Amino acid sequence: MRIARMPQLTAVIVDDEERPRQALAKLVERTQPQVTVTGMAPNVPEGVELVRRLAPDVIFLDIEMGEHSGFDLLRSLGERPPYVIFTTAHESYALTAIRFSALAFLLKPVDKDELSTAIRKAQQAVHGANQIGMVEMLLRNMDRSHGERPLAMPVSDGFQMVNMNEIVLCVSDGNYTTLHLRDNKSMMVSRPIGHLEELLREHFIRVHNEHLVNRKHITRYIRGEGGEVVLSNGMNIAVSRRKKQELMAALDLI
């Protein structure tokens, strides 16, 4: 039986710090014989020029680079960017959005096993339509400045735009989550509720393992062992005992 060979890849590294840039290049050279690093850039403008000139299969992209970010580079590249593997030294909202979009990322210093996993995914998905959709979803979700900004939510056939303020309640359904909207409609999102909690934590609160509610849509709290919240759509949602204090603090009721 013939074993299908995974494709050879070309890659570039865009990172404003020379030591991590060189360290990653050496790690790729030492552990990933199927990947050739064809160029490196220390900032976003040079990174854009490098990608356009070399047309690599993969870009290792630092998130924060001085005045610019890796997201600025992606916006400059247009509709068909290379396969993106983000690199970062710390947790941030950006990393939460990357996880939600199901894109690859590596924490610095880069671990060789995690690098191998990211490269395998890249070999399977280079230039795939799904990767392009995930990048678009990420870029749309990065601006979280106010609740009227539409969020891109992954659904079965792509992604759907929804304003944060329109979401009243998120209900867990295994690896999926049902969003209850202000107009009494609902939609199923192909992410578990924990991923939504990370993305929406500034405006939503987890009152129960299965329920994540929009603070702006809480109209009343009913006392009890854990109590209940009444939402703007008329739904009563039980609050677990261990979440009660967190809810009280979030609503400034302590």
Q: Which class of the largest domain in CATH terms?
A: Alpha Beta
SS strand fraction: 25-35%
CATH topology of the largest domain: Rossmann fold
Main sheet summary: 5 strands, parallel
Mean pLDDT across the residues is 87
CATH superfamily of the largest domain: Response regulator
Rg computed from alpha carbons, rounded to a whole number of angstroms: 21 Å
Report the uncertain regions: none
Can you offer a commentary on this structure?
The protein is α/β, with parallel strands linked by helices. The chain folds into 2 domains: 9-141, Response regulator (Rossmann fold); 151-250, Beta Barrel (OB fold (Dihydrolipoamide Acetyltransferase, E2P)). 34% of the residues lie in helices and 32% in strands. The protein is built from 8 helices and 17 strands. The chain has helices spanning 18-31, 44-54, 70-77, 93-100, 112-125, 129-141, 193-200, 241-250, and strands spanning 9-14, 35-41, 58-62, 64-65, 68-69, 83-88, 104-107, 150-155, 158-163, 167-173, 176-181, 186-189, 204-208, 211-214, 218-222, 228-231, 236-238. The strands form 5 sheets. Strands 2-1-3-6-7 form a 5-stranded parallel β-sheet, sandwiched between helices. It has a 5-stranded antiparallel β-sheet with strand order 12-11-10-14-13. A hairpin with a 2-residue loop joins β10 (167-173) and β11 (176-181). α4 (93-100) packs antiparallel against α7 (193-200). The longest helix has 14 residues, at 18-31. The mean pLDDT is 87.
Compose a concise summary of this entry.
This protein is of the alpha/beta class. 34% of the residues lie in helices and 32% in strands. The protein is built from 8 helices and 17 strands.
